[in-house]
Amino acid sequence: MRIEGLSKSFGHVHALADVDLDIPHGRFICLLGPSGCGKTTLLRLIAGLETPTKGRILLDGVDITRVPAHKRDFGMVFQSLALFPHLSVGENVAYGLRVRGVDRARRRQRAEELLALVRLPGVLDRPVAQLSGGQRQRVAIARALALAPKLFLLDEPLSALDAKLREAMQVELRLLQQRLGISTIVVTHDQREAMTMADIVVVMDHGRVQQVGAPLAIYREPANAFVAGFIGLSNLLQGTLAEDGVRIDGHAVRVARLPPGLVPGAAVTLSVRPEEAHLRPFGEPGPNRLPAEVAFVRDLGASVEVTARCGEAELLVVMAPRERPSDLALGGRVMVELPAEACVVLAA
Ligand code: ATP
PANTHER family annotated for this entry (predicted)? Predict the structure, then answer.
């Protein structure tokens, strides 16, 4: 699927602005961004539930922008699930088959197969109302898959589940998608969820696509400060570009890669992941070390998180408990090392 220059306005609200996107076949795509960034609008445009103000949607080279939702052959799962409460599980799953005139025996058989696929066997004749939240989720997924859709679209499908079930369902959904090889697009505001499931993450903000890429690529090479801050935690430091690095508060920080298109003197933001930064003894010489004062220590058991104040900036350093300096104390002075390879320079 190819999306070209897609825009959608609701009155004065520009929900989506000039989105270009290639959605490769058989992949799991997550549309990720904060509330109001336009991800649901993009999904609804893809589904045919909204008409774009501008732009086109192409499926296998054919323009489907004006094709109504029910003729697109896509399966959808909404946050609300939209199950029919008065129908049994089997009738819910086979609903689309009935509309298509598939006979009763065949419908039952197909519903049973689909329920087995989503690991919910033996509930065919149960009322939907008797199922738990996680089970209903599976019924909605089975129903959406019943017509072997070309594209599987899900809008925050797991947000109503408690944290534990939600994590389990993320893994299940990913494994199901891989088994079926079905092109899938999921809307989520949860970066961990996106990182768990997606082949490709589309990070959105303010109606625009900020970055598209594999989860790790986006984590390691965020395109801008918004992505760096939204995907995982990042230390963001304001500085000025120099010949071989960045100057921050009078300190020189060498970087392994300089961004193309920026000239020395330009205002930049330096992004360093907390697990890539290190604490060193105060005064110990070495490259890329900034003097700082310990502002807070979180001993979390599995990890230690130290917040250190460096001039105006607060730096977060995350380490394994065995790497924790024994003399770490609030107000104590330390050096924070930002290894050159871990420094990502972004246009400010
Ligand atoms: P959320 O996670 O909160 O659902 P989202 O990223 O999915 O957010 P959208 O629902 O796509 O965001 O909304 C994008 C913008 O468009 C928001 O400012 C929203 O208020 C506005 N919007 C969406 N649908 C409509 C509508 N039918 N009428 C008016 N404004 C709308």
Answer: SPERMIDINE/PUTRESCINE IMPORT ATP-BINDING PROTEIN POTA (PTHR42781), SPERMIDINE_PUTRESCINE IMPORT ATP-BINDING PROTEIN POTA (PTHR42781:SF4)
